[in-house]
């Protein structure tokens, strides 16, 4: 299959212009005012799957954003790969921190991407990585190199919790039947250190509201005599970690899987420089749970983080006021075995219980999802590993990631199949942040590597 390299050389410019076209559509799922752009993106993907050689492509209605389903079935006796990805993107703000507009993609060179990277919201997460699969399919169908059946399922609500997909999957089990699920929506260690993501954390996301007096008060007339909801909220939040940075919610760690000394030693073998890590973030020191390394803290340990906090006067100048209410959004990253509904309940009970009588506390659960660990002893992992060996010249390192794709656990439950996570992004690609980008080299390397997964998997099947 040496021809994939030539095919990429020949079509590289078109591969880039097509992706750039898709990246120009601001398909932000969190903001309802971009609904038209959501539909435009979905249409774009439908058309591109048709052009790439799918026999059947459908724009599937859901209670929310449409899901694109596509397939090319060549022989029922051959295995079927189901590709999942998402076309929705995160909001671009704070927009003023972008060096070029988020929906006007440009290719710029960076230290890590000397061949250039596409700067645009969604370039890495996940339009760019999803589109690699469309182009890999185009190569395989147009050159007679598709070795097995393939299905695509591309959704538009991943960044807001995949509610419609959770509705869609159990209703379409037959249509979605497959032998393995293939996803590129994660990262790898470095361009010269390929890795396969073998774990995702779960998530519980909640919002809290603390109410003190029934109206905003003069902080001189009332200050010191009534509870200030902002003071109380920050105190309550601070109490959620102890001096060792353990989470204090009773029962929180009950189902946390403790890795053996051997497993931790194995993890520690992955190349990692704490100095480079600190330097990349311009921090003098890292911070986290006692007795765990940085890579353990962000992959195999659960966390609790405030994502936003607000209340009171934040305008220009000063206003002496005790606000009636204070709010925070809190996320908990979970490890496999921790049930996100149970954790949400534990949080709610605990947070309500630590509130002083002088305030009222409401905990509103948002979305959540289970973590996932992929096996490394099955043919899917082997097929992926061999694919990287061919195109990177190196055996990829298995590595658990701290991020979440909650729908993966549901795929296993509903479709009874394992997922393989072949991510080609880098942590420095700034997903969810200003100036998100995706290396041109990474984009093309992904397109080059994917077809080998198909052939290897079909051979091993
Ligand atoms: N693609 C990311 C998840 C990811 C990125 C996993 C890098 C591993 C490595 C995904 O789009 C994402 O952002 N997921 C959300 C969860 C979702 C429920 C909003 C997350 O992890 O915050
Ligand atoms: Mn993603
Ligand atoms: Mn994301």
Question: What does the model show?
Answer:
A hairpin with an 8-residue loop joins strand 4 (106-108) and strand 5 (117-119). The chain has 2 domains: 3-200 and 371-460, Zn peptidases (Aminopeptidase, 3-Layer(aba) Sandwich); 202-256 and 302-368, Alpha-Beta Plaits, CATH 3.30.70. It is built from 12 helices and 18 strands. It has helices at residues 3-23, 35-51, 127-142, 163-171, 229-238, 261-268, 274-281, 294-297, 340-353, 379-392, 407-415, 440-460, and strands at residues 56-60, 67-72, 80-86, 106-108, 117-119, 149-155, 180-183, 195-200, 202-211, 217-218, 303-311, 321-322, 325-334, 360-369, 372-373, 397-400, 419-421, 437-439. With 461 residues, the protein is of the alpha+beta class. A 6-stranded mixed beta sheet has the order 1-2-6-3-7-17, with helices on both faces. Strands 11-13-9-14 form a 4-stranded antiparallel beta sheet, covered by helices on one side. The two termini are 19 Å apart. The longest helix is centred in the N-terminal third of the chain and has 21 residues, at 3-23. One manganese (II) ion binds next to loops.
């Amino acid at each position: 299959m040496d021809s994939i390299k030539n095919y990429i050389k020949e079509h590289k410019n078109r591969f880039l212009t097509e992706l750039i076209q898709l990246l120009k559509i601001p398909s932000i799922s969190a903001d309802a005012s971009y609904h038209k752009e959501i539909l435009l993106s979905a249409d774009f993907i439908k058309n591109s799957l048709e052009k790439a050689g799918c026999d059947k492509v459908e724009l599937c209605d859901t209670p929310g954003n449409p899901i694109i389903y596509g397939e090319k079935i060549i022989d029922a006796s051959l295995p079927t790969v189901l590709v999942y990805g998402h076309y929705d993107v995160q909001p671009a703000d704070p927009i003023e921190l972008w060096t070029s507009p988020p929906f006007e993609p440009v290719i710029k060179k960076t230290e890590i991407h000397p061949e250039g990277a596409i700067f645009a919201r969604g370039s890495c997460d996940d339009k760019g990585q999803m589109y690699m699969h469309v182009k890999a399919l185009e190569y395989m169908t147009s050159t007679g190199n598709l070795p097995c059946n393939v299905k695509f399922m591309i959704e538009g609500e991943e960044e807001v919790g995949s509610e419609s997909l959770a509705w869609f999957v159990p209703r379409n089990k037959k249509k979605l039947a497959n032998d393995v699920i293939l996803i590129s929506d994660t990262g790898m260690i470095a361009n010269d250190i390929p890795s396969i993501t073998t774990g995702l954390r779960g998530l519980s996301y909640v919002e809290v509201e603390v109410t003190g007096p029934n109206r905003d008060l003069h902080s001189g007339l009332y200050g010191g005599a009534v509870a200030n909801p902002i003071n109380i909220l920050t105190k309550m939040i601070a109490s959620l970690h102890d001096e060792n940075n353990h989470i204090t919610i009773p029962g929180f760690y009950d189902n946390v899987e403790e890795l053996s000394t051997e497993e931790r030693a194995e993890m520690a073998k992955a190349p990692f420089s704490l100095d480079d890590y600190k330097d990349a973030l311009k921090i003098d020191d890292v911070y986290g749970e006692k007795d765990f390394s940085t890579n353990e803290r962000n992959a195999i340990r659960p966390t609790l983080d405030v994502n936003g906090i607000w209340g009171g006067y934040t305008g220009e100048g000063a206003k002496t006021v005790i606000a009636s209410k204070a709010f925070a959004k809190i996320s908990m990253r979970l490890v496999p075995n921790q049930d996100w509904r149970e954790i949400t309940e534990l949080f709610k009970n605990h947070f309500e219980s630590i509130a002083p009588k002088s305030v009222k506390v409401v905990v509103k659960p948002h979305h959540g999802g289970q973590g996932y660990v992929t096996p490394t002893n099955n043919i899917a992992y082997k097929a992926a590993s061999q694919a990287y060996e061919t195109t990177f010249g190196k055996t990829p390192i298995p590595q658990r990631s701290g991020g979440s794709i909650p729908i993966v656990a549901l795929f296993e439950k509903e479709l009874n199949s394992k997922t393989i996570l072949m991510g080609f992004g880098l942590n420095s690609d700034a997903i969810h942040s200003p100036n998100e980008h995706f290396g041109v080299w990474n984009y093309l390397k992904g397109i080059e590597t994917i077809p080998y997964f198909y052939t290897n998997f079909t051979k091993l099947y």
